[in-house]
Amino acid sequence: MYEKDNLSQLLFIDIETVAQCEDYLQLDHSSQLFWQKKAANFKNESGLNVREIYEQRAGIYAEFGKIVSIGLGYFKFDGEENLTFRVKAITNDDELLILREFTDLLRRKFDQEKLIFCAHNGKEFDFPYLCRRMTVNRITIPEALSLRGKKPWEVKHLDTMDMWKFGDRKQYTSLDLLANILGVESSKDDITGSDVNTVYYRDKNLNRIAAYCKKDVVVTAQVYLALQHMPLLSNDDIVMV
Protein backbone atom coordinates (compact mmCIF):
# COMPACT_ATOMS: atom_id res chain seq x y z
CA MET A 1 0.00 0.00 0.00
CA TYR A 2 1.34 3.42 -0.97
CA GLU A 3 1.08 6.42 1.34
CA LYS A 4 -0.27 9.07 -0.99
CA ASP A 5 0.14 12.10 1.27
CA ASN A 6 3.77 11.33 2.07
CA LEU A 7 4.88 10.33 -1.42
CA SER A 8 3.30 13.31 -3.17
CA GLN A 9 5.52 15.72 -1.18
CA LEU A 10 8.82 14.09 -2.19
CA LEU A 11 11.23 15.28 -4.86
CA PHE A 12 14.07 12.85 -5.58
CA ILE A 13 17.23 14.40 -6.99
CA ASP A 14 20.65 13.36 -8.20
CA ILE A 15 23.41 15.58 -9.54
CA GLU A 16 26.27 14.74 -11.88
CA THR A 17 29.40 16.84 -11.57
CA VAL A 18 32.69 17.27 -13.40
CA ALA A 19 35.90 19.26 -12.98
CA GLN A 20 35.55 22.93 -13.96
CA CYS A 21 38.23 22.49 -16.62
CA GLU A 22 39.25 19.48 -18.66
CA ASP A 23 42.88 19.82 -17.59
CA TYR A 24 44.49 21.13 -14.43
CA LEU A 25 46.79 23.29 -16.56
CA GLN A 26 43.77 25.23 -17.84
CA LEU A 27 43.15 26.61 -14.35
CA ASP A 28 44.41 30.08 -13.48
CA HIS A 29 47.52 30.23 -11.34
CA SER A 30 45.71 30.83 -8.05
CA SER A 31 43.34 27.92 -8.62
CA GLN A 32 46.28 25.66 -9.45
CA LEU A 33 47.92 26.53 -6.15
CA PHE A 34 44.71 25.90 -4.22
CA TRP A 35 44.28 22.53 -5.94
CA GLN A 36 47.87 21.60 -5.09
CA LYS A 37 47.12 22.25 -1.42
CA LYS A 38 43.89 20.24 -1.65
CA ALA A 39 45.50 17.31 -3.45
CA ALA A 40 48.36 17.17 -0.94
CA ASN A 41 45.86 15.93 1.68
CA PHE A 42 44.65 12.98 -0.40
CA LYS A 43 45.92 9.43 -0.06
CA ASN A 44 47.89 8.75 -3.21
CA GLU A 45 48.97 5.14 -3.11
CA SER A 46 48.99 4.95 -6.91
CA GLY A 47 51.50 7.79 -7.17
CA LEU A 48 49.33 9.99 -9.41
CA ASN A 49 50.55 13.45 -10.31
CA VAL A 50 48.55 16.57 -9.56
CA ARG A 51 47.01 16.67 -13.07
CA GLU A 52 45.82 13.07 -12.82
CA ILE A 53 44.35 13.65 -9.37
CA TYR A 54 42.53 16.71 -10.71
CA GLU A 55 40.95 14.69 -13.51
CA GLN A 56 39.81 11.99 -11.12
CA ARG A 57 38.64 14.01 -8.13
CA ALA A 58 38.12 17.71 -8.83
CA GLY A 59 34.48 17.24 -9.79
CA ILE A 60 33.68 15.97 -6.30
CA TYR A 61 34.43 19.35 -4.74
CA ALA A 62 32.18 22.35 -5.34
CA GLU A 63 35.20 24.69 -5.21
CA PHE A 64 36.78 22.96 -8.20
CA GLY A 65 33.82 21.34 -9.98
CA LYS A 66 30.56 22.18 -11.66
CA ILE A 67 27.15 20.60 -12.18
CA VAL A 68 26.35 19.27 -15.65
CA SER A 69 23.09 17.46 -14.89
CA ILE A 70 20.36 17.51 -12.25
CA GLY A 71 17.97 14.57 -12.24
CA LEU A 72 14.51 15.06 -10.76
CA GLY A 73 11.78 12.56 -10.00
CA TYR A 74 8.41 12.76 -8.28
CA PHE A 75 5.42 10.53 -7.65
CA LYS A 76 2.08 11.27 -9.22
CA PHE A 77 -1.29 9.67 -8.55
CA ASP A 78 -3.94 9.63 -11.24
CA GLY A 79 -7.68 9.72 -10.65
CA GLU A 80 -7.82 5.97 -10.04
CA GLU A 81 -5.10 6.09 -7.40
CA ASN A 82 -2.55 4.52 -9.74
CA LEU A 83 1.00 5.60 -8.94
CA THR A 84 3.53 6.75 -11.53
CA PHE A 85 7.00 8.16 -11.13
CA ARG A 86 7.96 10.98 -13.49
CA VAL A 87 11.64 11.60 -14.16
CA LYS A 88 13.55 14.29 -16.05
CA ALA A 89 17.08 15.67 -16.20
CA ILE A 90 18.18 19.27 -16.59
CA THR A 91 21.44 19.05 -18.51
CA ASN A 92 23.66 21.67 -20.07
CA ASP A 93 27.29 22.70 -20.51
CA ASP A 94 26.39 26.00 -18.87
CA GLU A 95 25.95 25.43 -15.14
CA LEU A 96 24.22 28.78 -14.66
CA LEU A 97 21.45 27.79 -17.08
CA ILE A 98 20.99 24.47 -15.27
CA LEU A 99 20.65 26.13 -11.88
CA ARG A 100 18.28 28.80 -13.18
CA GLU A 101 16.01 26.19 -14.76
CA PHE A 102 16.14 24.06 -11.63
CA THR A 103 15.22 26.87 -9.24
CA ASP A 104 12.53 28.17 -11.58
CA LEU A 105 11.00 24.69 -11.82
CA LEU A 106 10.93 24.36 -8.03
CA ARG A 107 9.14 27.65 -7.60
CA ARG A 108 6.61 27.02 -10.38
CA LYS A 109 5.74 23.37 -9.80
CA PHE A 110 6.18 22.65 -6.10
CA ASP A 111 4.87 23.98 -2.80
CA GLN A 112 8.00 25.15 -0.99
CA GLU A 113 6.39 24.66 2.43
CA LYS A 114 5.56 21.01 1.79
CA LEU A 115 8.38 19.97 -0.52
CA ILE A 116 10.80 17.34 0.82
CA PHE A 117 14.05 16.58 -1.00
CA CYS A 118 15.39 13.04 -1.08
CA ALA A 119 18.75 11.82 -2.43
CA HIS A 120 21.27 9.10 -1.67
CA ASN A 121 24.09 10.63 0.36
CA GLY A 122 22.30 13.89 -0.33
CA LYS A 123 23.13 15.44 3.04
CA GLU A 124 26.85 15.01 2.42
CA PHE A 125 26.96 15.67 -1.31
CA ASP A 126 23.97 16.67 -3.47
CA PHE A 127 22.32 19.21 -1.17
CA PRO A 128 25.44 21.14 -0.05
CA TYR A 129 26.97 20.96 -3.54
CA LEU A 130 23.85 22.52 -5.05
CA CYS A 131 23.80 25.28 -2.42
CA ARG A 132 27.49 26.02 -2.90
CA ARG A 133 27.27 26.22 -6.68
CA MET A 134 24.16 28.40 -6.43
CA THR A 135 26.09 30.73 -4.16
CA VAL A 136 29.01 30.88 -6.61
CA ASN A 137 26.58 31.66 -9.43
CA ARG A 138 24.74 34.31 -7.38
CA ILE A 139 21.46 32.40 -7.39
CA THR A 140 19.09 32.59 -4.42
CA ILE A 141 18.84 29.19 -2.75
CA PRO A 142 15.21 27.96 -2.78
CA GLU A 143 13.55 27.89 0.63
CA ALA A 144 13.02 24.13 0.56
CA LEU A 145 16.74 23.55 -0.01
CA SER A 146 18.11 26.23 2.32
CA LEU A 147 19.34 25.49 5.84
CA ARG A 148 19.67 29.12 6.86
CA GLY A 149 17.93 29.94 10.15
CA LYS A 150 16.33 26.51 10.42
CA LYS A 151 16.39 24.17 13.38
CA PRO A 152 17.42 20.57 12.55
CA TRP A 153 13.84 19.30 12.72
CA GLU A 154 12.72 22.03 10.32
CA VAL A 155 15.04 20.87 7.52
CA LYS A 156 13.04 18.75 5.06
CA HIS A 157 15.86 16.71 3.59
CA LEU A 158 15.74 12.93 3.40
CA ASP A 159 18.75 10.76 2.64
CA THR A 160 18.37 7.07 1.79
CA MET A 161 21.90 6.38 3.00
CA ASP A 162 21.06 8.10 6.28
CA MET A 163 17.90 6.01 6.54
CA TRP A 164 19.95 2.84 6.07
CA LYS A 165 22.44 3.83 8.79
CA PHE A 166 19.83 3.31 11.56
CA GLY A 167 21.90 5.58 13.79
CA ASP A 168 25.33 4.19 12.83
CA ARG A 169 27.28 7.34 11.97
CA LYS A 170 30.31 5.42 10.64
CA GLN A 171 28.39 3.47 8.04
CA TYR A 172 28.78 4.29 4.34
CA THR A 173 26.81 2.29 1.81
CA SER A 174 26.77 3.06 -1.91
CA LEU A 175 23.49 3.37 -3.76
CA ASP A 176 24.45 0.42 -5.95
CA LEU A 177 25.12 -1.86 -2.98
CA LEU A 178 21.96 -0.81 -1.20
CA ALA A 179 19.92 -1.38 -4.36
CA ASN A 180 21.46 -4.83 -4.76
CA ILE A 181 20.58 -6.06 -1.30
CA LEU A 182 17.06 -4.60 -1.50
CA GLY A 183 16.30 -6.20 -4.86
CA VAL A 184 16.33 -2.98 -6.90
CA GLU A 185 17.69 -2.96 -10.46
CA SER A 186 21.03 -1.16 -10.69
CA SER A 187 21.56 2.10 -12.58
CA LYS A 188 25.18 1.15 -13.33
CA ASP A 189 24.47 -0.75 -16.56
CA ASP A 190 26.34 1.76 -18.74
CA ILE A 191 28.55 4.12 -16.75
CA THR A 192 29.25 4.88 -13.09
CA GLY A 193 29.86 8.15 -11.30
CA SER A 194 33.61 7.80 -11.75
CA ASP A 195 33.14 7.75 -15.54
CA VAL A 196 31.20 11.02 -15.78
CA ASN A 197 34.20 13.33 -16.09
CA THR A 198 35.64 11.26 -18.94
CA VAL A 199 32.30 10.92 -20.72
CA TYR A 200 31.84 14.69 -20.47
CA TYR A 201 35.25 15.94 -21.57
CA ARG A 202 36.54 13.19 -23.83
CA ASP A 203 33.36 11.74 -25.31
CA LYS A 204 31.39 15.03 -25.28
CA ASN A 205 28.27 13.00 -24.49
CA LEU A 206 25.87 14.93 -22.27
CA ASN A 207 22.94 12.74 -23.29
CA ARG A 208 24.67 9.68 -21.86
CA ILE A 209 25.27 11.50 -18.58
CA ALA A 210 21.64 12.66 -18.44
CA ALA A 211 20.41 9.09 -18.98
CA TYR A 212 22.62 7.83 -16.16
CA CYS A 213 21.48 10.67 -13.90
CA LYS A 214 17.81 9.80 -14.45
CA LYS A 215 18.49 6.13 -13.73
CA ASP A 216 20.07 7.08 -10.40
CA VAL A 217 16.95 9.07 -9.51
CA VAL A 218 14.78 6.03 -10.24
CA VAL A 219 17.00 3.74 -8.16
CA THR A 220 16.94 6.20 -5.25
CA ALA A 221 13.13 6.29 -5.35
CA GLN A 222 12.95 2.49 -5.50
CA VAL A 223 15.34 2.19 -2.55
CA TYR A 224 13.21 4.68 -0.61
CA LEU A 225 10.10 2.59 -1.26
CA ALA A 226 11.91 -0.59 -0.17
CA LEU A 227 13.10 1.06 3.03
CA GLN A 228 9.53 2.14 3.73
CA HIS A 229 8.25 -1.41 3.10
CA MET A 230 6.22 -0.25 0.10
CA PRO A 231 5.89 -2.07 -3.24
CA LEU A 232 8.52 -1.27 -5.86
CA LEU A 233 7.59 0.46 -9.11
CA SER A 234 7.26 -1.56 -12.30
CA ASN A 235 8.87 -0.33 -15.50
CA ASP A 236 5.41 0.70 -16.73
CA ASP A 237 5.05 2.99 -13.70
CA ILE A 238 8.16 5.01 -14.63
CA VAL A 239 7.72 7.90 -17.07
CA MET A 240 10.81 9.59 -18.54
CA VAL A 241 10.09 13.17 -19.63
UniProtKB/TrEMBL annotation:
Entry EC number(s): 3.1.-.-
Keywords annotated in UniProt: Exonuclease, Hydrolase, Nuclease
UniProt cross-references to InterPro entries, sorted A to Z: 3'-5'_exonuclease_PolB-like (IPR019288), RNaseH-like_sf (IPR012337), RNaseH_sf (IPR036397)
Domain Predicted 3'-5' exonuclease PolB-like, chain residue ranges per copy: 64-230
Protein's name according to its UniProt entry: 3'-5' exonuclease
Domain of life: Bacteria
Keyword Chaperone: no
Organism phylogeny: Bacteria, Pseudomonadati, Bacteroidota, Cytophagia, Cytophagales
GO molecular function, one term: exonuclease activity
Enzyme class: hydrolase
